[in-house]
UniProtKB/TrEMBL annotation:
Pathway named in the protein's UniProt entry: Carbohydrate metabolism; tricarboxylic acid cycle
PROSITE patterns in the record: CITRATE_SYNTHASE
InterPro entries with a match to the protein in the record: 2-MeCitrate/Citrate_synth_II, Citrate_synth-like_lrg_a-sub, Citrate_synth-like_sm_a-sub, Citrate_synthase, Citrate_synthase_AS, Citrate_synthase_bac-typ, Citrate_synthase_sf
Gene3D superfamilies (alphabetical): Citrate Synthase, domain 1, Cytochrome P450-Terp, domain 2
Classification lineage: Bacteria, Bacillati, Actinomycetota, Actinomycetes, Micrococcales
Matches recorded under Pfam families: Citrate_synt (PF00285)
Entry's Gene Ontology molecular function annotations: citrate synthase activity
One cellular-component annotation, GO: cytosol
Family: Belongs to the citrate synthase family.
Protein name (Swiss-Prot/TrEMBL): Citrate synthase
PANTHER family to which the protein is assigned, alphabetical: CITRATE SYNTHASE, CITRATE SYNTHASE, PEROXISOMAL
């Protein structure tokens, strides 16, 4: 007698699956729009500081001047690299990828926090501010030690973005550069249930601590299909060489069935809402550093990719060359993404905890039928 069984519907990659609600951001692929707590990201990028956006993501509203000053003060006092964290960074060889260094450092930041398991909202807000302040110190120090340069002490008199650049380069660059960096951090800050944010929510759903969730999220972001793409874009540019070679390079790469880094998106199919704002920031950098050659390569590759595949660039496409022009090492690009996205991750961690349910999907077994060990 044959039995009819209903096959479970499997959505590989969870494509199209709505896993939960969130009040933090709304991605609308139909209108190519992205809202943080209701505000279009373009408006935030035009008018807000990065700390204002962090506050908005965590609290749901923009800060009053007093609330912003309190956040800035709290962060300013924690900008110096803690002794244990510096020691941990020094232990990791410079042959390791900066994302591995950052993942290790965040783990140590967590392990040395006596309040690591305080899961109250206040406790998690304090940890979020700590990470906001500490991650730039790790990223900046790691890039410097790779270049054989000494650590640069934090400057409490500087704003968040200026201090980040000061700790990396030993000076505050031109306001054009500072502003482009601020814009990139705001655009990278949050993007609903992307792979790294979902990772953070899965870890949080077990009632693990905030640092563990961020460490897991860093691991997810490292991959080239996600945050690692901004670094990969720069490798592609290096491989192509000049603007004139872009089309031929693309034809060969597509014939070899290669993924073209910085193009395509799981949610946006007609263009990434953040690209025009980041492209405008890149254009100011191209003008500032007088690099029309880089702009031409960018345009030629994009034009050819859209013509061949009708696949649009994502945020990593303009941000990769922008970070290159700012002077960051290519391997530092994804840690910069962490410095920004950490704000979104921590907002999601707090949201997950506020209405938690263990995240535990089912699987459809596809292995051998039940069998038994042979008699011995
Ligand atoms: N280069 C070449 N072909 C691509 C690309 C690309 N960048 N992106 C999608 N495609 C093609 C696929 O080969 C596939 O073609 P097929 O149907 O003929 O096999 C089709 O488009 C659909 O691709 P999927 O992988 O199924 O689409 P998915 O939604 O899963 O992919 C992803 C999204 C992973 C981002 C993909 O576009 C990609 O690999 N891009 C390159 C990596 C990248 O830039 N990542 C950054 C993401 S955004 C961010 O993190 C800020």
């Amino acid at each position: 007698m044959s039995q009819t069984q209903t096959e479970p519907e499997i959505r590989k990659g969870l494509v199209g699956v709505v896993a939960d609600t969130t009040a933090i951001s709304k991605v609308n692929p139909e209108t190519n729009s992205l809202l943080y707590r209701g505000y279009p990201v373009q408006e935030l990028a035009a008018r807000c500081t990065f700390e204002e956006v962090a506050y908005l993501l965590w609290h749901g509203e923009l800060p009053t001047p007093a609330e912003l000053a309190a956040l800035e003060d709290a962060g300013r006092g924690q900008r110096a690299l803690a002794r244990e964290v510096r020691a941990a960074v020094d232990l990791v060889p410079t042959t390791a990828h900066p994302m591995d260094v950052l993942r290790t450092a965040v783990s140590v930041i967590g392990a040395t926090d006596p309040a690591v398991d305080d899961a109250s909202r206040e406790g998690n807000l304090a940890k979020s501010v700590r990470l906001l302040a500490q991650i730039p110190a790790v990223v900046a120090y790691d890039q410097r030690r790779r270049r054989g340069q000494d650590l640069v002490e934090a400057r409490p008199d500087l704003g968040y973005v200026e201090n980040f650049l000061h700790m990396t380069f030993g000076e505050v660059p031109d306001p054009v550069v500072v502003d482009a960096f601020r814009v990139s951090l705001i655009l990278y800050a949050e993007h609903s249930f992307n792979a790294s944010t979902f990772t953070a929510r899965v870890i949080t759903s077990t009632l693990s601590d905030l640092y563990s969730a961020v460490v897991g999220a860093i691991g997810a972001l490292k991959g080239p299909l996600h945050g690692g793409a901004n670094e990969a874009v720069m490798h592609v540019f290096d491989e192509i060489g000049t603007a004139e070679d872009a089309e031929a390079w693309l034809d060969t790469a597509l014939a070899e069935k290669r993924r073209i880094m910085g193009f395509g998106h799981r949610v946006y199919k007609h263009g990434d809402s953040r690209v025009p704002t980041m492209k405008a920031a890149l254009d100011t950098l191209v003008a500032h550093y007088d690099r029309p050659d880089l702009a031409a390569l960018y345009d030629n590759l994009e034009r050819a990719m859209v013509a061949r595949k009708n696949i649009q660039p994502n945020l990593d496409y303009p941000s990769g060359p922008a970070y290159h022009l700012m002077g960051f090492d290519t391997a530092t690009f994804t840690p910069l993404f962490v410095a920004a996205r950490n704000t979104g991750w921590t907002a999601h961690i707090m949201e997950q905890l506020a209405a938690n349910s263990l995240i535990r999907p089912l699987s459809a077994y596809s292995g051998p039928a039940e069998r038994h060990l042979p008699q011995r």
